[in-house]
Design goal:
It contains two helices and no strands. By secondary structure, it is mostly helical. The longest helix has 9 residues.
Length: 43
């Protein structure tokens, strides 16, 4: 599976407890670094 699906869920899906990393989107001082393979499903 890799990290592409979880990365997409965290960054584009709903903010919920089903994807704890999605909570990172509620703060303004977060920088997320992804390798190309992990980012391949992002818009």
């Amino acid at each position: 599976m890799g990290w592409a699906i979880p990365a997409r869920a965290a960054l584009t899906g709903p903010i919920s407890t089903r994807c704890p990393a999605s909570a990172l989107r509620t703060t303004s001082h977060v920088t997320i670094h992804l390798d190309p393979e992990s980012a391949r499903l992002l818009p």
